[in-house]
C-alpha cells in the first residue's frame, strides 16, 4: 500500500527541487493517471540512491482540454522521456519540456488512449498505410510562473535539412527489434541521435484495465520476453501483497530459482546478440547453443521456451519435475566451463576490446539521473540491484555479490552481465538442494478482487528494475496498471551517450545497453 | 594479459593482440572438430523429445464412444483473455426426469489467436480440455486455424 | 489426371496438415494444361526456388527470438538452405513476419513487402502476426497481417517452437513446389484479392500551432 | 607429370592447320574464354558450398544437408532461384552505372582469375610483368563497388561504398609491398618463372622470416581486399543492412556474391603461387623417394589443394573474429601493416643481397 502525498500544483516545482536537493536523485517511476472526476494527474516515485528511502508524490489537475503540469525534466534527465510518455497517453502538457512530441503513437494519432474517455473506434484511428511524416518541428512551452497557461514559445528543429541524415530502423538487424534511430552524420561521426519508439506499442496497460487480475498476468511475459519470469513475479507479488496472501516457502524457492535461470538466459542472449552485432557470428551461435540447454530445463517445468506462463497468483502453475534439481546442477557446472570459452573467443579478443573499451561511457551521475538500473547502472558504478535495495523472495537469505564495475563503457557493461551469470549460478546452487516440501500453489478464490488502494512491487528484472503499480478501486479489474519499463531509461541514456561516436559504435552501444523493445513500448 | 616491460609499447601491443587472436582461433578450431549439436528435425520426428508440458494446441480428449467431459459451463470462455474460445450450447430435456439441461453443441477454438496462458484449462471444473504438445500446425489457410474441438 | 504431389524429405505427404487447401490450389493452377517441356522446366525452377528461400530478417518481438534460435546451432535452418537471411528486402524471397504488427509498424511492413523482388512470400509466425493474438483488442495492434499483405503460410503458436517454424517453412516449400512459374497462373493475381485499402483520415490530433 | 604447354601447342597447331590464321586465333580466344568462365563458375559454386559447410562446422552446426546428398545441390538451387528473381528498377538511380557496376566487379575478378597458373602451362596470360598485371587487374574491382554505392541512390550503399574505397585502396598498398618482397626474392615478375623457381623449396621456406611475415601480412591485406570479416565494413550487416549492394536484387546481387567468393579464391591463388610454390609439389631436400612420390600427384591437384587450404585458413579467421571499426581498419593498415611491410621489404632485400636465403 502506497502512501501518496498530494502536492499543490503551484508549489509543485519548488517541492520537486527541494526533494532533489534533499538527495532524492533517482526518479524511479512516473505514472500518468486519469481519475475522471478528480482530474488528471501524475504520480512520482522518488528514491534516494544512497539510503534507498522511497517517497511517493502526486500532482492533480482538473483541467481536461489543455492540462498543464510544470516539467521536472531538468531535475531528473529521465523525466524527459517519461513526460513524453504521459503526454502521449494522457495529453498532459509539461510546461518547460524541451521536446513535447508523442513518444509511442504516430504523430497523427487522434486522442489520448489511456484516458478513461478515449474512443478506440477504428474509424477515428484506422490502420494507415502511409508512413508518418517526420516531425522536425517541436513544441516547447514557456515555463513562466505568472501566466495561467504556458504558451508555445518556440519552434525547434530536431534535424536540419542540410544535415546528412540516415534512418536506421525500424526494421534493421541491429536495433534488436523495432526501434528507429534518425542519425545526423558528419562523415562517420554521429552529430545528433533522435530515437523513435512505439513500433511495437501494443497498449498493454490500457488492455489490462479491462482484464481480470489473472488475465493481466499473461501480458507480463510478453513485455520483456527475456525476463518473463521476473516480470510475472513482480505482478504476482504486487497482487499477493494487495490481497495479503502469503505464498509458501516452496513457491519462494521455485520462483527465486526460476528468476535466476531466466537471468542467465537473458544475459547469454545479450552476449550472443552483442557478438552478432559486432560481426562475430560464431560467438553468437556459441551463446545460443548453451542457451538451448537452459531453455530445455525451463520448458520441461513450465511448458514454454520463451513465454512460460509459470507464476500464478498464489504460487506457480505446476510443480517442478522430479529431475529438475539434477538437471539444473548439471547445467550450472557446464555453463561455468563455457563462460571461459566466451572470454577466449570474444570478450578478450583485441578487436572487441578496441571497439568497446572507452566507448559509450555513461557516468554514475548520469546513470542515476537517467534511472538506468540493472547491468547498465552497475557498470557505471551505481549499486542499483533491487535484490539488495529492497529484497524480496529469498534474496535476503542467499549470499551473493552485487557486481559493480566503474568504467561505464560497453566493455564493462558486457562484463557485468557475464559476471552476473556466475553470481546467478551461485544463488541457484545455494537453493537447489534445499527446496522445502509444501504446496506449489495457495488456493485462491475464483474471482480475485483487490482492496482499494495503490500498490507497488518491484523485482530485479534481467535488465533493471521492473516495477508494477496497481491502483485498485476494489473491483476485479485494476483501475490503473502501470509497468515500469526497464528499457526506456536505457534508450534515453543511449540518445545522449551515442553522440560523438561513430556509426559502428552506435551499434555497440545499443547492444551493450541490452534493451528489449517490447518492454520499452509495452 | 601482461607482457611485462613491453606493456603499451608498439611491439607489446602487437604481441598482446596476436595472442588474443590466436586464443580465439584456438577455440573455434576446437569446435571445428567437436561433435555438432544440431538436431535433425524432421528426420528425427519419431524420436525427438518434446516436453510433456509444452503447449502447442488446445484439445478436448474424447473416450472411445466419442464422449467428452465438457458440461458447457462456459468458464473457459470467460477465463480466456482474448476471446479465443467460443461455445455454443443447446438445451436437451432428459426424458426420464423431465429436467432440461444445457449441453455442448460446438466448441470453437482459434489456434491462430491463442496465447497459451492456460487459464481455460485452469478454469475447467471437469478437466475436459488440455494442451497437447503437437506443434506441427502450420497451414495455408487462416480458416483452418479455427477448429471445432468436440466431435 | 494424377495430381502432382510435392515431396518433402522425411515427412510423408499424408502427414502434412492442410493438404486440402494445397490440393485446391493445385487444381486451380492446373486448370490450363501446359506442355511437357514447360512443365519440366517449371519443376526444375520450383525445385530451385523451394530450396533456396532466403528470408528477410523481420522480427518485432518474442517470435523473433525463436527465429534466431532456428538459425542457431541446434535447429540450424541452414540444413534446408534457408540460412542466408538477408537484411535488404531486395534480396529476400520471403518475409517472415515474426511478432506483433502495430498501427505504427503496418506501413513499414507494407513498404518492405513492396520493396521485395518477385517471387516473394509471406509467412505469418505466431498469434500476433496471424490475428493480433493476445493483443487483438488493443487500440494499436493490427489484427492479422493478412489485412495488408497476402500471407502464404500461417504458423500458430505463441511463440511457435523452432521445430514448428521449420515445419511452416516446409509447408511453404510445398506451396512453392506446386506453383507454376512459366506460363501458368501464379501468385501475381493474389494482389487483387487484397482488401481495399482502409480509409485514411487526415485530421490532425494535437492542437494547431498557435503561431499560425 | 602432365605438361599443359604441349597440349596447348598441339591444340593451337591443329586449329592453325584447319582454319585461316585470324579465325584460328579468334576460335582460340573464344575457347579460352569459355573455359575460363566455366572454371570461374565451377569454383564459385564449390566455394560457396565450402563456405557454408566450413562455417557450419565452426559453429557446431551441420550446414546444408537436405538438398541433394549432403546438401551438394544447395548452391545450384540458389543459382536457379537467383536467375529468375525479379530485377528491380530503382527510382532515381543512375541506371547505366547501376547496371554496369556488378559487371565491373566480376570482370576484374575474372581477368585476375585467368592469370593464375593452375598447372604448368595452364594459364591464359603469361608475360614478363605478370605479377604487376595481376595487381592492376584485381584492383579495379573497387571501382565497381564505388559505382554500385553511388548509383543506388541509397545512403547505406553510399556509406558502404565510401568505406570500401578507403579500405581497399589502403590495403592495396601493403598487399603490393608483400608481393614486392617476393619479387625481390625471386628476381622476376613472370608468374611461370616464379613458380618454376620454387620447384626445390617454396618461397615461404626459402625466404624464411621475411617471407613468413610477408605471407601473414598478405593474408590480412587480402582478407581486407575481399571485404570479408573482420573487414566486411562495406557490407557490415548489422550497421548498413547490406552495404553497397543493398539495392541489388536477383542476378545483380548474385554477381557481387560470386565475385566476393572468387576474389577470395584469387587471393588464395596468388598466395599459393607466390609463397607456397604454386603447382609444384612438396619438395624436401634429401628425401628423394618422397619427392618422387610427390611428383606423381598432378600439379593442378597441388595447386587447388594449396588454394583451398589457404581459403580454409581465411574462412577460419572470418568465422572467429568480430568486425573492426573503420578507423581501426585504417589504423591497422597505416600504423602497423605498412611500416612492418616496408621494414620487411628492407630485411628481405638485405637477406637476398647477403645471400641469407635458403
Give a structural overview.
- In chain A, 38% of the residues lie in helices and 18% in strands.
- Chain A is an alpha+beta fold and 522 residues long.
- Chain A folds into 2 domains: 5-135, Beta Polymerase, domain 2 (2-Layer Sandwich); 210-517, Cytochrome-c3 Hydrogenase, chain B.
- Chain A starts with a strand and ends with a helix.
- In chain C, helix 2 runs antiparallel to helix 6 (162-178) and helix 3 packs across helix 6.
- Chain C has a domain at 54-171: Rossmann fold (3-Layer(aba) Sandwich), CATH 3.40.50.12280.
- Chain C has helices at 19-29, 36-50, 62-71, 106-115, 126-131, 162-178; strands at 55-56, 94-98, 121-125, 153-155.
- The termini of chain C are far apart.
- Chain C has 212 residues and is α/β, with parallel strands linked by helices.
- Chain D has helices at residues 4-18, 21-58, 74-84, 95-114, 130-139, 141-151, 155-186, 191-197, 203-206, 208-225, 237-240, 250-275, 288-296, 299-318, 326-354.
- Chain D starts with a helix and ends with a helix.
- Chains A and C meet through helix 3 and helix 7 of A and helix 3 and helix 4 of C.
DSSP strand count of chain D: 0
Sum up the overall morphology of chain A in one term: globular
Into how many domains do the coordinates of chain A divide? 2
Average pLDDT across residues of chain D?
83
CATH first level of the largest domain in chain A: which class? Mainly Alpha
Structure class of chain D: mainly alpha
List keywords for this structure.
heterotetramer, B: 151 residues, alpha+beta, 2 domains, three-stranded antiparallel β-sheet, 19% strand, C: 212 residues, alpha/beta, Rossmann fold, four-stranded parallel β-sheet, globular
Describe the structure concisely for a colleague.
Chain C has 212 residues and is an alpha/beta fold.
Write the layout of secondary structure elements.
The complex is a heterotetramer of chains A (522), B (151), C (212) and D (358).
Chain A: E1 5-7, H1 12-21, E2 26-34, E3 40-47, E4 54-61, E5 68-70, H2 79-90, E6 93-95, E7 137-141, E8 152-157, E9 164-168, E10 180-186, E11 189-196, H3 204-208, H4 213-221, H5 228-243, H6 249-277, H7 281-302, E12 311-312, E13 315-316, H8 324-347, H9 350-356, H10 364-370, H11 375-379, H12 386-389, H13 410-431, E14 453-461, E15 464-472, E16 480-484, H14 488-497, H15 503-513, H16 517-521
Parallel strand pairs in A: 1-4, 5-6
Antiparallel strand pairs in A: 2-3, 3-4, 7-8, 9-10, 10-11, 12-13, 14-15, 15-16
Chain C: H1 19-29, H2 36-50, E1 55-56, H3 62-71, E2 94-98, H4 106-115, E3 121-125, H5 126-131, E4 153-155, H6 162-178
Parallel strand pairs in C: 1-2, 2-3, 3-4
Helix pairs in contact in C: 2-6, 3-6
Chain D: H1 4-18, H2 21-58, H3 74-84, H4 95-114, H5 130-139, H6 141-151, H7 155-186, H8 191-197, H9 203-206, H10 208-225, H11 237-240, H12 250-275, H13 288-296, H14 299-318, H15 326-354
Helix pairs in contact in D: 1-2, 2-12, 3-12, 4-5, 4-6, 4-12, 6-7, 7-10, 7-15, 10-12, 10-15, 12-14
